[in-house]
From TrEMBL:
Binding site for ATP: G390, E391, P392, D414, T415, W416, W417, Q418, T419, D504, R519, R530
Binding annotation for CoA: R196, G197, G198, R199, T314, S527
HAMAP family per the UniProt record, alphabetical: Ac_CoA_synth
Function: Catalyzes the conversion of acetate into acetyl-CoA (AcCoA), an essential intermediate at the junction of anabolic and catabolic pathways. AcsA undergoes a two-step reaction. In the first half reaction, AcsA combines acetate with ATP to form acetyl-adenylate (AcAMP) intermediate. In the second half reaction, it can then transfer the acetyl group from AcAMP to the sulfhydryl group of CoA, forming the product AcCoA.
Native source organism of the sequence: Halothiobacillus neapolitanus (strain ATCC 23641 / DSM 15147 / CIP 104769 / NCIMB 8539 / c2) (Thiobacillus neapolitanus)
Protein name in the entry: Acetyl-coenzyme A synthetase
Ranges for domain AMP-binding enzyme C-terminal: 535-616
PANTHER family: ACETYL-COENZYME A SYNTHETASE (PTHR24095), ACETYL-COENZYME A SYNTHETASE 1 (PTHR24095:SF14)
E.C. designation(s): 6.2.1.1
Length: 650
């Protein structure tokens, strides 16, 4: 991957807001540099200090990093702790009456759950699943709507040392069955249904279908009565309410070794078959708690809202575990941003006085498409920090977020990380690091990120290459469940000198800022120039009529590859002459913005783009469409299959 070229020109810089910095946990560049230096001078000592400061250990650890079985690194191995104690018990009794979760349902009704109530509900459910025979190390599938009971189920598993694997509630029975069988789960925790956008989501019937199709390991199914219409199968099914009815609100936590798996979670499947990522209790919690404190600067009086579903890693680190480990109040939302109208997010920020808000570029681009007057109807003055994750955020979407949602006052934390990294890796500390639209800025203290060629040698400034992390960190993936060989091959390929290979391409600018350029798999090769997808897409999105864009390569006799762009316009999809005119406009626009080399040879318009259920553009499917074929490969996590036909013109 030598000579990946950068064609993006983006020079805007935003200094940390001095008012914000004055109160921030890490409020200056000097403070950031001091932490970086501390990690450089004594790497293990640095992480040991964080692990002691951010977590409560039942048995303190004496070993820090164990690399005897690298790349299966182990952290804090002789320490013992319990994740639910760190998220709940240690905040009691001081925060017994503090609201832990403000839950807004799809229909707008609101429920508040205090830390004491959270404790009691978790204990009762933990006792309940224990009574079903679940013990330490057993796997439990959680297939739930975005309601507090999803977090309660996760924490109940953690309380008794069971390993949870949350499956996004929008996945089909087949996807669910695959995950049940891969994990060998004994128990499934689900609900009779959920509500999204005014429609019911039939969770229980999907579980029934999965079990009928064959899930030999499953013994019991616990059903939360969200809709009140659960039809229970004799023998396997147990109603949540019945299970906890006579259970105690005391449940002695199982203190587990730091390396005990806390959960398994499957990746989004953007680049291939989803991988079952295994995370360890101690290390995961260290980075989850630390990044919520450093990057989101969460404090006791914040109202925090992360819009991610608990079915994704973001919902693990930034809904369930991280914020609760810090004892803050958070909003949890069952529904979708467009229901009952496109102002829902902004109305909720006003209603709950949200101060820290974290969402994905796909949502930002979709809401931006609706125009500035939608958010203008809500009072967003409670906001003090905005975050984004999931995909590269195009500079124009970043600017809209900054200007329209953040009133040019709120710092923006563009957080680069992955299911495998467990927590933020590269992101601005908002009181310390100036931001640039489209850049995730600089690695967090203790994270040794670099950009290297295929042999592991560093590339020059502004040259693209493989994004790697050179040293192990506490919340890193331990293995792919049941597949050590795939783990080693995917993340620690032989030639790379033992570095963790992220699978993304990136460049670093003269100020040491990182810019994600796309997936390694998606790099284009045009007339000998190797280009990332993100930069061409960003030029397209910068056009006032474009809402979203995805760029892929198509084999070309002379050039090697030609550039095909799939574009979603603001307003209606152009057709006929209007489409031809728009193609010309956009080709000229890209040539003007970044030069003729990046000019798409072919531009097609769609109402949407193929996306994973976590909202990421699946470029690998568009490569098939570009050559006129219905794409091959794993499409189990594709959100909107019908769009493939539209883009193919069938
Ligand atoms: P799979 O690994 O199955 O292909 P996936 O990589 O989409 O799926 P996730 O772990 O959910 O699964 O996503 C991590 C990826 O998301 C990163 O590797 C990166 O490509 C992208 N990403 C996340 N945050 C950012 C960000 N702030 N900027 C750029 N890219 C990001
Ligand atoms: Mg990935």
């Amino acid at each position: 991957m030598n000579n990946l070229e950068s064609i993006l020109t983006e020079n805007r810089v935003f200094q940390p807001n001095p008012e914000f910095a004055a109160h921030a946990r890490i409020g200056s560049l000097d403070a950031y540099n001091a932490l970086v230096a501390e990690a450089q001078n004594d790497y293990e000592g640095f992480w040991a200090r964080q692990a002691r400061e951010f977590l409560t250990w039942d048995t303190p650890f004496t070993t820090i990093l164990d690399d005897s079985n690298a790349p299966h690194y182990r952290w804090f191995t002789d320490g013992k702790l319990n994740a639910s104690v760190n998220c709940i018990d240690r905040h009691l009794p001081a925060k017994a009456q503090k609201v832990a979760i403000i839950a807004e349902a799809d229909d707008g009704s609101v429920r508040e759950i205090t830390y004491q109530q959270l404790h009691d509900e978790v204990a009762k459910l933990a006792n309940g699943i224990k009574s079903l025979g679940v013990t330490k190390g057993d796997r439990v599938i959680i297939y739930m709507p975005m309601i507090p009971e999803a977090s309660i189920a996760m924490l109940a598993c953690a309380r008794i040392g069971a390993i949870h694997s949350v499956v996004f509630g929008g996945f089909s029975a087949e996807a669910l069955r695959d995950r049940i069988n891969d994990t060998g789960a004994r128990l499934v925790i689900t609900a009779d249904g959920g509500m999204r956008g005014g429609r019911t989501v039939p969770l229980k019937s999907a579980v029934d279908k999965a079990l009928e199709a064959g899930c030999a390991s499953v013994e019991k199914v616990v059903v939360f009565e969200r809709l009140g219409n659960a039809a229970l199968n004799a023998g396997t099914d147990v109603a949540w309410s019945a299970l906890i009815a006579d259970k105690s609100t005391t449940c002695d936590p199982e203190m587990v070794e730091a390396e005990h798996p806390l959960f398994l979670l499957y990746t989004s499947g953007s680049t291939g078959k989803p991988k079952g990522v295994q995370h360890a209790t101690g290390g995961f919690l260290v980075n989850a708690a630390l990044t919520n404190a450093w990057v989101f600067d969460l404090n006791d009086d914040d109202v925090y809202w992360c819009t991610a579903d608990v079915g994704w890693i973001t919902g693990h680190s930034y809904v369930t575990y991280g914020p609760l480990a810090l004892g803050v109040t958070q909003v949890m939302f069952e529904g979708i941003p467009s229901y009952p109208d496109g102002g829902r997010f902004w109305q909720m920020i006003e209603r709950h006085k949200v101060s820290v808000f974290y969402t994905a570029p796909t949502a930002i681009r979709a809401l931006m498409k609706l125009g500035d007057d939608v958010p203008a109807k809500s009072d967003l003055s409670s906001l003090r920090l905005l975050g984004t994750v999931g995909e590269p955020i195009n500079p124009e979407a970043w600017m809209w977020y900054h200007r329209v949602i953040g009133s040019e006052r709120c710092p923006i934390a563009d957080t680069w990380w992955q299911t495998e990294t467990g927590a933020h890796m590269i992101a601005p500390l908002p009181g310390a690091i100036a931001t640039k639209p489209g850049s995730c800025t600089r690695p967090l203290p203790g994270i040794i990120a670099d950009i290297v060629d295929d042999e592991g040698n560093p590339v020059g400034h502004n040259q693209g290459g493989n994004l790697v992390i050179k040293k192990p960190w506490p919340s890193m993936i331990r293995t792919i469940w049941g597949d050590d060989a795939r783990f080693q091959r995917s993340y620690f390929p032989e030639k790379l000198k033992g570095y963790y290979l992220a699978g993304d391409s990136a460049r670093r600018d003269d100020d040491g800022y990182f810019w994600i350029m796309g997936r390694i798999d998606d790099v284009l090769n045009v007339s000998g120039h190797r280009l990332g997808t993100m930069e061409i897409e960003s030029a397209l999105v910068a056009h006032p009529l474009v809402a979203e864009a995805a760029v892929v390569g198509k084999p070309h006799d002379i050039k090697g590859e030609s550039i095909v762009a799939f574009v979603v316009c603001k307003g209606d999809r152009p057709e006929g002459d209007a489409a031809d005119a728009m193609v010309k406009t956009l080709r000229d626009w890209v040539a003007e913005q970044i030069g003729p080399i990046a000019k798409p040879d072919d531009i097609r318009f769609g109402d949407n783009l193929p996306k994973t259920r976590s909202g990421k553009i699946m470029r690998r499917l568009l490569r098939g469409i570009a050559i006129g074929e219905l794409p091959q490969g794993d499409v189990s996590t594709l959100e909107n299959p019908a769009i493939l036909e539209q883009l193919l013109g069938k």
